[in-house]
Design brief:
The chain has 147 residues and is mostly beta strands. Helix content is 10%, strand content 30%. It contains 1 helix and 7 strands. The chain is elongated and about 80 Å long.
Length: 147
C-alpha cells in the first residue's frame, strides 16, 4: 500500500514506522509479586528442594496458606507459588531413606497432593525442620471451629 500511495502527501503520514525503541518488560502475574522478606509470613528460610536427581537450595516463604519459592532472600518476585491447603505433609521414614541418600532422615519431609505428585524438602538442621513442618501442618489443614 505504501508504494501505491507514496505520491499522495495526505496519506503518507499513515504509513509511519512504529517506535520500536521502547521495550516492554516481561509480564509478571500479581500472585508472584510478594517480596521474599514479606511481613506477617508464618515461616521463611532456605530449604533444599529435590528437583529430579539434584537438590536445589531456594528461599521459601509460607504466607496465608501459600508457599512461595524464590531464588534468593532478596528477591521481590516469586518463581513459583503453591497453595498448600489440602496437601498432605509427611516426614521421611527410615524405609524410604535410601531414596534421599546423603540427607539425614529427620531433615527430609514432603508435601503431596493427589494429581500433583510430591514436593520433597530438606532443612539445614532438626530445629529448622521441625519449625517448617509445624508451620506447613497448620497451613495444610483447616481448623474446625467449635461453635
Amino acid at each position: 500500500l505504501k508504494l501505491r500511495y507514496r505520491n499522495d502527501p495526505s496519506l503518507l503520514p499513515r504509513f509511519k514506522k512504529r517506535d520500536t525503541s521502547r521495550t516492554v518488560g516481561k509480564y509478571i502475574p500479581q500472585r508472584l509479586k510478594l517480596s521474599a522478606n514479606a511481613e506477617e509470613s508464618q515461616m521463611s528460610g532456605y530449604l533444599k528442594q529435590k528437583k529430579g536427581a539434584r537438590w536445589k537450595t531456594n528461599w521459601f516463604v509460607l504466607k496465608d496458606r501459600v508457599l512461595y519459592t524464590y531464588k534468593a532472600s532478596e528477591d521481590t518476585v516469586a518463581v513459583e507459588t503453591v497453595p498448600v491447603l489440602g496437601w498432605q505433609l509427611e516426614t521421611l521414614s527410615d524405609k524410604n531413606f535410601e531414596l534421599y541418600e546423603g540427607m539425614s532422615a529427620g531433615l527430609v519431609f514432603h508435601l503431596s497432593h493427589p494429581g500433583r505428585g510430591a514436593i520433597v524438602f530438606c532443612a539445614e538442621n532438626d530445629n529448622f525442620a521441625e519449625k517448617w513442618m509445624t508451620a506447613l501442618r497448620e497451613a495444610t489443614t483447616l481448623e474446625e471451629s467449635t461453635a
